[in-house]
Amino acid sequence: MSMNDLLEITKANFSALFIDRGRVQQQSLGLTQSGPMDEYAFLWANKLLGNDLNAACIEITFGKFSVKALQRCQVAITGANFNARLNHHNLANWETLYLKKGDELHFDGPQMAGTRAYLSIKGGFDCPKPFQSACTVKRENLGGFNAGEVLQVGDGLSSLVQQTQAQTINISVYPELIRTYNNRGVIHCRFMPTSQWALFSSQDQQRFLNQAYRISSQSDRMGVRLEGEKLKPYNDGIISEGIALGAIQVPPDGQPIVLMRDRQTIGGYPKLGTVLSTDIEKIGQAMPGQTIQFHVSDIKAAYEERIQRERFFDPNNED
Amino acid sequence: MKVSAYCELISEKNLLVRFGDQISEDLLDVIQEASLCAAKVFGHQLKDLVASYTTLLIEFDPLLISPWQAQIAFQKAWDQHCLIIYSHVFKPSQNAKDIVGSSIEIPVYYHPSVAWDIQTIAQQKGITWQQVADYHSQKEYRVYAVGFAPGFAFMGQIDSRLETPRQSNPRTKVPAGSVAISDLQTAVYPNQSPGGWNIIGRSPSTFFNPESSPAALLKTADRVRFKSIDKAQFIHLGGCLNDLSTADDKDDG
């Protein structure tokens, strides 16, 4: 704790961590790219405050997280709805908030929609940035206040910039742009088949497209494991190669794994294709046990949506 | 040697280039050359490069270059590179030679007290554990890929007399510096981690340190030799003899 601290963590469930858009140019060292599980919500958390889009935010998984304001500051919350409360007042999500000394912000409602919320602070959190990124990756001992450890009760949080005078006007995301998450329904995800799609029989290709897969509880920021009818590729293994975000690989047990933000840099299992990078966040917000259905798309859609997203969030594009 | 490249867009910002389907030292040099070529073609459009045994994954910025332009740009540049400079006969250029120039010697204490599997392997092969150490330290290896964990370098190929499959039951904790083999590959665990490779020694060297530059001791294409050292040298070089209390922990996963 230091004099500059604006917030203190008063409750944490061992999964709240610093995150930014990812660690770039370091995969040749074997470091994962990392990044936010829900990019859309993460980008909004920064955009709402006029932050650099790569500013460090806190990703809160499954709620049970609280902070207390030690000084006046401005924050924003987006992403999963954990029935956030400011002191005793319920909050709408996807908005900025001015906190004054003593205010408590809770993400601990009994119900939730989505699994990951983002907390940003005006100017971005001041945190260690090993290899130029705030991303916390436990298995690499990188990020956070203690070599890859998640945030703990008692940790103090500060910003890279001085907080301005308290104001009362909060801004929020246009209602039509707010994402709501449903933890019961089927998630629909588009993917582009890649060349190893041909390593699967046409029956297996149909099996993959026609079934709704269950998301296993053995899922994390590295990969989301799916449970369903088994697939059997012609090859059990390929020579290890670099892996794109969203690659759907099939290990010998026949149950696909979608490789998420903290994926390993290289891998040797056959892949069905790549989930569109703008659809990955749907999986990032899904609850274990929820089902997911895949739909064939192509690189044209992947590219157009990526460009659209980058332009939308680009601060130079604002009207 | 023919160095055709098959370029596939695997996402809107990733181009996977395949150079062959057989692991070989020649291909390793080709891929180093291709990394240079990609860096030159894409310049500031380049976001990351992941070289592996037979492939190069190129990540570019789709805001600066479309995936289709990226594919054509690399394909063209590579064809010219091969055609003009090598006349279809591949020789690493001076640049690539500089890249592959690093020769690294790694001290290893090969002793059953820290080499948990060396006696088992010796018994299986009908040789002494000292011979396992000899066979392992007699060869020069190349780094074919880096992955699995920060600074974890996949090196090959070991003496076929030592070929041993991965353990079916990976250990939950392998000490930092453990020198290990799996099939025809060898590697050193940079940090304590879970692992299924067979441990035949321990090195006192530091293999990954975020504070130093470069952070990883080994990079793709490096040439590596292992040098047998005794206990006194191991300790002198900062080696740690302590076995983990959970040394025999096995994980069913």
Q: Could you explain the architecture of this structure?
A:
The complex is a heterodimer of chains A (about 325) and B (about 250). Chain A has about 325 residues and is of the alpha+beta class. In chain A, about 10% of the residues lie in helices and about 25% in strands. Chain A is built from four helices and 20 strands. Chain A is globular, with a radius of gyration of 20 Å. The mean pLDDT of chain A is about 95. Chain B has two domains: about 5-100, Gyrase A, domain 2 (2-Layer Sandwich), CATH 3.30.1360.40; about 100-235, Cyclophilin. Chain B is built from six helices and 13 strands. Chain B has helices at about 25-40, 65-85, 95-100, 120-125, 130-140, 230-235, and strands spanning about 5-10, 15-20, 45-50, 55-60, 105-110, 140-145, 155, 170-175, 180, 185-190, 195, 200, 225-230. Chain B is elongated and about 55 Å long. The interface of A and B includes residues 31, 195, 239 and 240 of A.
Number of alpha- plus pi-helical segments of chain B: 6
**Number of helical segments of chain A?**
4
Share in β-strands of chain A: 25-35%
Kindly give the count of domains of chain B. 2
Q: Please tell me the CATH architecture of the largest domain in chain B by its name.
A: Beta Barrel
| Widest sheet: strand ordering of chain A | 12-19-16-17-14-13-20
Look at the structure and give the mean pLDDT of chain A: 94
Largest protein interface, residues of each chain: A-B, 39 and 44 residues
**What strand order characterises the main sheet of chain B?**
5-13-6-7-10-9-12
Low-confidence stretches of chain B: 245-253
Amino- and carboxy-terminal Cα gap of chain A: 40 Å
Q: Which series of helices and strands of chain A comes N to C?
A: EEHEEEEEEEEEEHEEEEEEEHEH
Largest sheet of chain B: 7 strands, mixed
Task: Count all strands of chain A and give the number.
Answer: 20
